[in-house]
DNA sequence: ATGAAAGCGCTAACAT
DNA sequence: ATGTTAGCGCTTTCAT
């Protein structure tokens, strides 16, 4: 079917050509000190001539620095997950790390062994993007079994302990959810409804908290799936009710579904209905009308997670990673009620 | 900082506990024949008791079946790429394969060695999601160096040879682009403009072809970046021109940008302006108004790419993978011109 | 059906 | 500054 692939060149081939021992070659490719400049040059020339590239498996097996990170997640196509992954990738690429992605099935139960089996070997560095129960479970397993090589982002469904700083990178979406709710209340809305994505309990908690603070009984939460379509379906009843004047949505996609439902129900936005999302996804600013939403720096979180992991692995203090705090961005889908 | 991680259990530990040689353990974990049922059971019990999991690096090094695929791409957050990746993941997960993702920088030039260096070892199985020049280049390198272990999806900028079937999985977006253009022409539009994404030459070629067939001189192509924002900017001039009544866009995101630009310019859709996208992204059906677009089965292509690779690797004929052909989905952003 | 020996390509520890 | 010797954990031979 295809040309025979020649036997790959090994460290010994390079050594022979350069007239040194294989160990010296190893030193050169690992930038070890204690190599004479002339020797180094000879070896490098041989490497170039032969097109030698080290075998990662052999390296890992021999106990060399791994330079790879396994990312555990359930869905690489959700906006938040995809952006976080991007952030991890960016940072990992810059640091010369390889990324392994292991996708878990959200509908499946995983034993401890299943989770550990996703790593290339015991104790391999891992980042969990924890946005649901499955990934949160995986995070807990790894945290328990190999805390020194594990970092997570997100971390819902979790009573976060005081000292999770050294392994959990997350956004304070709870506080900003409360802020968004208060903003709507301050515009004069009698109450705010919440359309929930599966998981992301923090946002819901922030919303509930703000209502409680205002002495308002929280309306029943409406549950949606992750897709725009499911949000549309879920919102049909809500938008048909003229008493409903403000809806906080678990993310932008849901908000788009609500907006479409409102359009179909002939309710004007924001005149009849205010809608707020989460994510500030690329489309939000260019929607008609532009969506009021919350900027969530998932990419920064991804970068931060990688940097944190690297610090645990290599010790030493690289600059402490930073990222933007969540921020409410008021655009044109929110305003005072009853301007029909 | 964390509990000491105990030394991982190896095949020898299992062997000792089960009272057999390590080789027999190897046979059991590889489902080799020639193992007595009783022995097999003993070994399996020992594995369970010890929580043994094979070390992938050791396996790979010893020449065992690799069961991993490296995916090369430039941007995991673009819709088409993300969906293709998802398709690959789905199929790989079902087959028990591990996914390595290697992200290339679209702004960088890669030598042959750079590309090969992205693989864990020489000859490692790879899938290239080729949507731009960088990835197309990588595809060509791997195709040349290790055709037997390489498959690609997409493949723009490429004079596709006759017999690429056994390594290239792609969608015929060129034909459907022509079809979309003809559809607009048939509605009475004098011409159709094209807003191009970077790359995806096929779509542009289909558009040009349809215009040429109709004896219409193609208007100048307008170029956009990948983001909605860049499309908005790029479309400003186009939507300001009342002579422009139909715009075919390189993908849905660009179409959304154009729609927003049209809205700001007070041009009604589809009354004043028809807009068509590509992708049928999740939002398309729920946009206001719902977007006319082309269904592109990227996820199916991803699955197909993986299956094709597996066939090359393992021989034997698994069922030939299939996926949906591109299809024009007429919704509400397109119609006859001049209905203002 | 099972075991023993050899070696995959590399790095670590110990030479010199 | 460089070379030599052992493995890392596993899968191939090739025995038995």
Structural class of chain A: alpha/beta
What is the molecular shape of chain A?
elongated
CATH hierarchy, class of the largest domain in chain A? Alpha Beta
Number of helices of chain A: 12
CATH homologous superfamily heading of the largest domain in chain A: Response regulator
Number of strands of chain A: 11
User: Biggest sheet of chain A, open or closed, and with what strands and sense?
Assistant: 5 strands, parallel
Largest two-chain interface = A-B, 58 and 59 residues
Q: Please tell me the CATH architecture of the largest domain in chain A by its name.
A: 3-Layer(aba) Sandwich
- Strand order, main sheet of chain A: write it out: 2-1-3-4-5
Q: What is the subunit arrangement here?
A: homodimer
Any overview of this molecule?
2 copies of one chain form a homodimer. Chain A folds into 3 domains: 11-53, 434 Repressor (Amino-terminal Domain) (Orthogonal Bundle), CATH 1.10.260; 62-171 and 297-324, 3-Layer(aba) Sandwich (Rossmann fold), CATH 3.40.50; 173-296, Rossmann fold, CATH 3.40.50. Chain A is built from 12 helices and 11 strands. Chain A is an alpha/beta fold and 340 residues long. In chain A, the strands form 3 sheets. Chain A has a 5-stranded parallel sheet, sandwiched between helices. The first copy, chain A, has a 4-stranded parallel sheet with strand order 7-6-8-9, with helices on both faces. Chain A has helices at 11-18, 22-29, 37-50, 56-61, 79-94, 112-116, 133-145, 173-186, 201-213, 228-240, 252-264, 298-314; strands spanning 68-73, 98-103, 126-130, 150-154, 168-169, 193-196, 222-223, 246-249, 274-276, 293-295, 327-329. Chain A is elongated, with a radius of gyration of 26 Å. The mean pLDDT of chain A is 92. Chains A and B meet through α4, α5, β2, α6 and α10 of A and α4, α5, β2, α6 and α10 of B. β2 (98-103) of chain A pairs antiparallel with β2 (98-103) of chain B. The structure holds a DNA duplex (16 and 16 nucleotides).
């Amino acid at each position: 079917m295809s040309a025979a692939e020649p036997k790959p060149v090994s460290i010994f081939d390079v050594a022979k050509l350069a007239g040194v021992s294989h160990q010296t070659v190893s030193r050169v490719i690992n930038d070890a000190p204690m190599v004479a400049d002339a020797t180094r040059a000879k070896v490098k020339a041989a490497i170039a001539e032969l097109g030698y590239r080290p075998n990662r498996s052999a390296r890992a097996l021999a106990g060399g620095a791994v330079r790879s990170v396994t990312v555990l997640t359930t869905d690489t196509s959700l906006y938040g997950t995809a952006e976080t992954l991007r952030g991890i990738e960016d940072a990992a690429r810059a640091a010369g790390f390889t990324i392994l992605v292991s996708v878990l099935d959200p509908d499946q139960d995983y034993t401890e062994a299943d989770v550990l089996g996703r790593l290339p070997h015991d104790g391999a560095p891992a980042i969990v993007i924890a946005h649901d129960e499955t990934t949160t479970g995986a995070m807990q397993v790894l945290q328990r079994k190999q805390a020194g090589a594990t970092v997570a982002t997100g971390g819902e469904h979790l009573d976060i302990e005081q000292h999770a700083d050294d392994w959990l990178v997350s956004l304070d979406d709870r506080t900003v959810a409360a802020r968004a709710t208060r903003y709507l209340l301050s515009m004069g809305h009698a109450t705010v409804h919440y359309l929930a994505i599966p998981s992301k309990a923090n946002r819901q908690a922030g919303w509930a908290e703000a209502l409680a603070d205002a002495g308002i009984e929280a309306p029943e939460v409406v549950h949606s799936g992750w897709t725009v379509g499911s949000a549309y379906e879920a919102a049909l009843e809500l938008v048909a009710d003229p008493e409903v004047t403000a809806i906080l949505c678990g993310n932008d996609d849901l908000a788009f579904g609500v907006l479409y439902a409102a359009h179909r129900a002939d309710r004007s936005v924001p005149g009849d209905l205010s809608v707020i999302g989460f994510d500030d996804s690329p489309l939000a600013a260019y929607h008609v009308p532009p969506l009021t939403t919350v900027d969530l720096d998932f990419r920064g979180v991804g970068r931060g997670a990688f940097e944190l992991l690297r610090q645990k692995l290599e010790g030493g203090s690289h600059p402490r990673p930073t990222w933007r705090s969540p921020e409410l961005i008021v655009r044109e889908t929110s305003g005072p009620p009853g301007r029909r």
